[in-house]
Amino acid sequence: MRRSAALVVLAALCLAGCDSEVTGTGNGVAAPVPDPFAPLREIDPCKVIDEQALAGLGTLGPREATTIGGGLGCTAALTLTTGARTVVGVNVGMAVPDGARSVDLGGTQGFQDEYCNIVLPRAEAPPRRYGVQVSAGSGVGQTRAEACAQTISVATALRERLTAPPTHADSGARSPFAGKDPCRPAGLVANARSSTHLNFTTCEHTGADTMTVRFDIDSRAPQGKPVRIGDKEGTTGQTAPHACTVEWTAGTAVGGARYIVSVRLEANPPRQDLCTDAVKAAAAVNGYLS
Protein backbone atom coordinates (compact mmCIF):
# COMPACT_ATOMS: atom_id res chain seq x y z
CA MET A 1 0.00 0.00 0.00
CA ARG A 2 1.06 3.57 -0.44
CA ARG A 3 2.86 5.07 2.54
CA SER A 4 1.55 8.62 2.73
CA ALA A 5 -0.25 10.98 5.08
CA ALA A 6 -3.39 9.09 4.15
CA LEU A 7 -2.34 6.33 6.53
CA VAL A 8 -2.86 8.67 9.48
CA VAL A 9 -6.56 8.78 8.71
CA LEU A 10 -7.22 5.46 7.02
CA ALA A 11 -5.07 2.99 8.95
CA ALA A 12 -8.00 2.21 11.22
CA LEU A 13 -10.33 1.31 8.37
CA CYS A 14 -11.86 -2.13 8.67
CA LEU A 15 -14.13 -4.08 6.34
CA ALA A 16 -15.89 -7.20 7.58
CA GLY A 17 -15.62 -10.17 5.26
CA CYS A 18 -18.45 -10.65 2.84
CA ASP A 19 -20.27 -13.97 2.90
CA SER A 20 -21.25 -13.71 -0.76
CA GLU A 21 -20.49 -17.25 -1.83
CA VAL A 22 -21.72 -19.49 -4.61
CA THR A 23 -21.40 -23.25 -4.75
CA GLY A 24 -20.63 -25.36 -7.76
CA THR A 25 -23.30 -26.38 -10.24
CA GLY A 26 -22.35 -30.05 -10.02
CA ASN A 27 -20.56 -30.13 -13.38
CA GLY A 28 -17.32 -28.53 -12.20
CA VAL A 29 -18.34 -25.01 -13.22
CA ALA A 30 -19.11 -22.39 -10.58
CA ALA A 31 -22.41 -20.57 -10.97
CA PRO A 32 -22.34 -16.75 -11.21
CA VAL A 33 -21.66 -15.04 -7.88
CA PRO A 34 -24.18 -12.46 -6.66
CA ASP A 35 -22.15 -9.28 -6.20
CA PRO A 36 -23.27 -7.42 -3.04
CA PHE A 37 -21.07 -4.49 -4.09
CA ALA A 38 -22.57 -4.04 -7.56
CA PRO A 39 -24.25 -0.67 -6.79
CA LEU A 40 -20.87 0.69 -5.67
CA ARG A 41 -18.50 -0.44 -8.39
CA GLU A 42 -18.90 2.56 -10.71
CA ILE A 43 -18.37 5.21 -7.99
CA ASP A 44 -15.28 7.41 -8.42
CA PRO A 45 -13.97 8.18 -4.89
CA CYS A 46 -11.64 10.94 -6.09
CA LYS A 47 -14.59 12.81 -7.60
CA VAL A 48 -16.54 12.51 -4.35
CA ILE A 49 -13.81 14.65 -2.73
CA ASP A 50 -15.06 17.86 -4.31
CA GLU A 51 -13.07 21.08 -4.04
CA GLN A 52 -16.10 23.37 -4.25
CA ALA A 53 -18.08 21.41 -1.70
CA LEU A 54 -15.18 21.65 0.78
CA ALA A 55 -14.35 25.30 0.05
CA GLY A 56 -16.19 26.45 3.18
CA LEU A 57 -13.83 24.32 5.29
CA GLY A 58 -10.53 25.11 3.59
CA THR A 59 -8.29 24.57 0.57
CA LEU A 60 -8.01 21.12 -0.96
CA GLY A 61 -4.71 19.66 -2.14
CA PRO A 62 -4.06 17.08 -4.89
CA ARG A 63 -6.03 13.85 -4.75
CA GLU A 64 -4.35 10.44 -4.55
CA ALA A 65 -6.11 7.18 -5.36
CA THR A 66 -5.30 4.34 -2.96
CA THR A 67 -6.52 1.05 -1.47
CA ILE A 68 -6.72 0.62 2.28
CA GLY A 69 -8.97 -1.59 4.33
CA GLY A 70 -10.37 -3.63 1.45
CA GLY A 71 -11.96 -0.73 -0.45
CA LEU A 72 -10.99 1.47 -3.39
CA GLY A 73 -10.37 4.97 -2.13
CA CYS A 74 -8.91 8.41 -2.52
CA THR A 75 -7.27 10.90 -0.15
CA ALA A 76 -6.41 14.59 -0.23
CA ALA A 77 -4.89 17.05 2.20
CA LEU A 78 -7.21 19.83 3.33
CA THR A 79 -5.77 23.06 4.75
CA LEU A 80 -8.48 24.38 7.03
CA THR A 81 -9.41 28.05 7.29
CA THR A 82 -7.67 28.01 10.71
CA GLY A 83 -4.41 27.05 9.01
CA ALA A 84 -4.43 23.51 10.43
CA ARG A 85 -4.05 20.58 8.03
CA THR A 86 -6.11 17.44 7.87
CA VAL A 87 -6.48 14.53 5.47
CA VAL A 88 -9.82 13.73 3.86
CA GLY A 89 -10.42 10.16 2.74
CA VAL A 90 -13.23 8.55 0.76
CA ASN A 91 -13.29 4.77 0.54
CA VAL A 92 -15.79 2.82 -1.57
CA GLY A 93 -16.98 -0.65 -0.63
CA MET A 94 -16.82 -0.44 3.15
CA ALA A 95 -19.19 -2.13 5.58
CA VAL A 96 -21.31 -0.39 8.20
CA PRO A 97 -19.60 -1.73 11.35
CA ASP A 98 -21.50 -3.39 14.13
CA GLY A 99 -22.24 -0.86 16.84
CA ALA A 100 -21.86 2.21 14.59
CA ARG A 101 -23.94 5.16 15.78
CA SER A 102 -26.32 7.07 13.56
CA VAL A 103 -25.25 10.65 12.76
CA ASP A 104 -27.09 13.43 10.95
CA LEU A 105 -25.30 14.96 7.96
CA GLY A 106 -27.56 17.89 7.18
CA GLY A 107 -30.61 15.71 6.68
CA THR A 108 -28.72 12.65 5.42
CA GLN A 109 -28.12 9.68 7.70
CA GLY A 110 -24.66 8.25 8.13
CA PHE A 111 -23.15 5.71 10.53
CA GLN A 112 -20.02 6.57 12.50
CA ASP A 113 -17.72 3.90 13.93
CA GLU A 114 -15.45 4.00 16.95
CA TYR A 115 -12.60 5.39 14.80
CA CYS A 116 -14.84 8.31 13.67
CA ASN A 117 -15.16 7.04 10.07
CA ILE A 118 -18.65 7.57 8.60
CA VAL A 119 -20.33 5.18 6.16
CA LEU A 120 -23.33 6.05 3.99
CA PRO A 121 -24.82 2.67 2.98
CA ARG A 122 -25.80 2.16 -0.66
CA ALA A 123 -25.85 -1.65 -0.99
CA GLU A 124 -27.17 -4.45 1.16
CA ALA A 125 -26.32 -8.13 1.55
CA PRO A 126 -27.99 -9.12 4.83
CA PRO A 127 -26.86 -8.96 7.51
CA ARG A 128 -24.30 -6.49 6.11
CA ARG A 129 -24.71 -3.06 4.53
CA TYR A 130 -21.99 -1.54 2.36
CA GLY A 131 -21.35 1.95 1.15
CA VAL A 132 -19.06 4.94 0.83
CA GLN A 133 -16.91 5.80 3.82
CA VAL A 134 -15.62 9.25 4.75
CA SER A 135 -12.74 9.91 7.12
CA ALA A 136 -10.95 13.07 8.21
CA GLY A 137 -8.37 14.04 10.79
CA SER A 138 -4.74 14.90 11.27
CA GLY A 139 -4.06 12.21 13.85
CA VAL A 140 -1.84 14.72 15.64
CA GLY A 141 -2.96 16.53 18.78
CA GLN A 142 -6.63 15.70 18.21
CA THR A 143 -8.97 14.19 20.73
CA ARG A 144 -11.37 11.52 19.56
CA ALA A 145 -14.27 13.95 19.97
CA GLU A 146 -12.48 16.54 17.80
CA ALA A 147 -11.68 13.97 15.10
CA CYS A 148 -15.27 12.68 15.05
CA ALA A 149 -16.67 16.22 14.85
CA GLN A 150 -14.30 17.06 12.00
CA THR A 151 -15.35 13.95 10.08
CA ILE A 152 -19.02 14.90 10.49
CA SER A 153 -18.24 18.40 9.15
CA VAL A 154 -16.45 16.97 6.09
CA ALA A 155 -19.15 14.36 5.39
CA THR A 156 -21.86 17.01 5.73
CA ALA A 157 -20.05 19.25 3.24
CA LEU A 158 -19.81 16.30 0.83
CA ARG A 159 -23.35 14.99 1.39
CA GLU A 160 -24.60 15.77 -2.12
CA ARG A 161 -21.66 13.87 -3.58
CA LEU A 162 -22.28 11.02 -1.18
CA THR A 163 -26.01 10.71 -1.86
CA ALA A 164 -25.54 10.94 -5.66
CA PRO A 165 -21.94 9.81 -6.13
CA PRO A 166 -20.12 10.71 -9.36
CA THR A 167 -19.05 7.73 -11.47
CA HIS A 168 -15.90 7.00 -13.44
CA ALA A 169 -17.92 7.52 -16.61
CA ASP A 170 -18.83 11.03 -15.39
CA SER A 171 -15.20 11.88 -14.71
CA GLY A 172 -13.87 10.87 -18.13
CA ALA A 173 -10.96 9.06 -16.46
CA ARG A 174 -12.31 5.55 -16.20
CA SER A 175 -10.58 3.12 -13.85
CA PRO A 176 -9.93 -0.40 -15.19
CA PHE A 177 -11.67 -1.60 -12.00
CA ALA A 178 -14.82 0.46 -12.60
CA GLY A 179 -17.83 -1.84 -12.76
CA LYS A 180 -15.61 -4.90 -12.39
CA ASP A 181 -16.00 -7.72 -9.87
CA PRO A 182 -12.97 -9.81 -8.78
CA CYS A 183 -15.29 -12.84 -8.61
CA ARG A 184 -15.58 -12.63 -12.42
CA PRO A 185 -14.81 -14.38 -14.61
CA ALA A 186 -15.83 -17.71 -13.12
CA GLY A 187 -14.16 -21.03 -13.86
CA LEU A 188 -10.58 -19.86 -13.16
CA VAL A 189 -9.76 -23.07 -11.28
CA ALA A 190 -10.39 -26.67 -12.26
CA ASN A 191 -13.44 -28.34 -10.70
CA ALA A 192 -14.65 -24.98 -9.45
CA ARG A 193 -16.83 -25.28 -6.35
CA SER A 194 -17.23 -21.78 -4.97
CA SER A 195 -16.26 -18.12 -5.26
CA THR A 196 -16.35 -15.85 -2.22
CA HIS A 197 -16.03 -12.06 -1.94
CA LEU A 198 -13.49 -11.54 0.83
CA ASN A 199 -14.10 -7.80 0.48
CA PHE A 200 -14.72 -5.17 -2.23
CA THR A 201 -11.38 -5.76 -3.95
CA THR A 202 -10.68 -9.47 -3.37
CA CYS A 203 -12.28 -12.78 -4.34
CA GLU A 204 -11.30 -16.34 -3.50
CA HIS A 205 -12.08 -19.04 -6.08
CA THR A 206 -12.02 -22.60 -4.74
CA GLY A 207 -11.87 -25.88 -6.63
CA ALA A 208 -9.08 -28.36 -7.23
CA ASP A 209 -6.83 -25.38 -6.37
CA THR A 210 -7.46 -22.10 -4.57
CA MET A 211 -7.06 -18.84 -6.47
CA THR A 212 -7.23 -15.32 -5.05
CA VAL A 213 -7.87 -12.36 -7.37
CA ARG A 214 -7.16 -8.91 -5.95
CA PHE A 215 -7.51 -5.36 -7.28
CA ASP A 216 -5.04 -2.88 -5.78
CA ILE A 217 -3.82 0.70 -6.16
CA ASP A 218 -0.18 1.07 -5.19
CA SER A 219 2.91 3.10 -6.00
CA ARG A 220 5.11 0.00 -6.23
CA ALA A 221 5.89 -1.83 -9.46
CA PRO A 222 5.11 -5.57 -9.72
CA GLN A 223 8.16 -7.69 -8.87
CA GLY A 224 9.24 -11.05 -10.30
CA LYS A 225 10.05 -12.78 -13.55
CA PRO A 226 8.72 -10.90 -16.62
CA VAL A 227 5.78 -12.58 -18.34
CA ARG A 228 3.27 -11.62 -21.03
CA ILE A 229 -0.36 -11.46 -19.86
CA GLY A 230 -2.55 -10.84 -22.90
CA ASP A 231 -1.79 -7.28 -23.99
CA LYS A 232 0.04 -6.45 -20.72
CA GLU A 233 3.53 -6.99 -19.37
CA GLY A 234 3.50 -8.56 -15.93
CA THR A 235 5.56 -10.60 -13.52
CA THR A 236 5.31 -14.05 -12.04
CA GLY A 237 6.94 -15.65 -9.05
CA GLN A 238 6.61 -18.88 -7.11
CA THR A 239 6.32 -17.43 -3.62
CA ALA A 240 6.21 -20.89 -1.99
CA PRO A 241 6.44 -24.51 -3.21
CA HIS A 242 2.65 -24.62 -3.43
CA ALA A 243 1.92 -21.03 -4.51
CA CYS A 244 2.50 -18.82 -7.55
CA THR A 245 1.59 -15.13 -7.86
CA VAL A 246 1.10 -13.21 -11.11
CA GLU A 247 0.87 -9.41 -11.09
CA TRP A 248 0.49 -6.72 -13.71
CA THR A 249 -0.25 -3.01 -14.03
CA ALA A 250 -3.65 -2.29 -15.54
CA GLY A 251 -3.24 1.50 -15.72
CA THR A 252 -2.26 4.68 -13.89
CA ALA A 253 -4.48 6.06 -11.14
CA VAL A 254 -5.10 9.63 -9.96
CA GLY A 255 -1.97 10.86 -8.21
CA GLY A 256 0.35 8.57 -10.16
CA ALA A 257 -0.13 5.24 -8.40
CA ARG A 258 -0.66 2.05 -10.40
CA TYR A 259 -3.77 -0.04 -10.80
CA ILE A 260 -2.32 -3.46 -9.95
CA VAL A 261 -4.02 -6.82 -10.43
CA SER A 262 -2.72 -9.91 -8.66
CA VAL A 263 -3.67 -13.54 -9.15
CA ARG A 264 -2.36 -16.01 -6.58
CA LEU A 265 -2.76 -19.73 -7.22
CA GLU A 266 -2.27 -22.23 -4.41
CA ALA A 267 -2.14 -26.00 -4.94
CA ASN A 268 -1.84 -28.87 -2.52
CA PRO A 269 0.20 -30.90 -3.23
CA PRO A 270 2.64 -28.63 -5.16
CA ARG A 271 3.12 -29.21 -8.89
CA GLN A 272 5.52 -28.01 -11.57
CA ASP A 273 2.96 -26.35 -13.87
CA LEU A 274 1.54 -24.11 -11.14
CA CYS A 275 2.81 -20.81 -12.58
CA THR A 276 1.73 -21.82 -16.10
CA ASP A 277 -1.82 -22.27 -14.83
CA ALA A 278 -1.63 -19.01 -12.88
CA VAL A 279 -0.58 -17.09 -16.01
CA LYS A 280 -3.49 -18.62 -17.98
CA ALA A 281 -5.93 -17.52 -15.30
CA ALA A 282 -4.34 -14.06 -15.19
CA ALA A 283 -4.84 -13.72 -18.95
CA ALA A 284 -8.55 -14.49 -18.48
CA VAL A 285 -8.82 -11.82 -15.75
CA ASN A 286 -6.95 -9.30 -17.91
CA GLY A 287 -9.32 -10.00 -20.78
CA TYR A 288 -12.26 -9.37 -18.47
CA LEU A 289 -10.81 -6.04 -17.35
CA SER A 290 -9.88 -4.88 -20.86
Brief account:
The chain is α+β, with helices and mostly antiparallel strands.
Beta percentage is 35-45%
Distance between the termini: 24 Å
Whole-number count of domains: 2
Give the helix/strand class.
Answer: alpha+beta
Quaternary structure annotation? single chain
N-to-C SSE string, H for helix and E for strand: HEHEEEEEEEHHHEEEEEEEH
How helix-rich are the residues, as a percent range? Answer: 10-25%
Arithmetic mean pLDDT = 87
The global form is: elongated
The number of helical runs is: 6
Poorly predicted runs are 1-19, 22-28
Gyration radius from CA atoms, angstroms:
20 Å
Count of distinct strands = 15
Strand line-up in the sheet with most strands: 1-9-10-11-15-14-13-12
Mind summarizing the main beta sheet? Answer: 8 strands, antiparallel
Question: Explain this structure to me?
Answer:
- The chain is of the alpha+beta class and 290 residues long.
- The chain has 2 domains: 6-18 and 38-171, no CATH class; 194-289, no CATH class.
- Helices cover 17% and strands 39% of the residues.
- The strands form 2 sheets. Strands 1-9-10-11-15-14-13-12 form an 8-stranded antiparallel beta sheet, covered by helices on one side. Strands 2-3-4-8-7-6-5 form a 7-stranded antiparallel beta sheet.
- The chain starts with 5 loop residues before the first helix and ends with a helix.
- This is DUF3558 domain-containing protein.
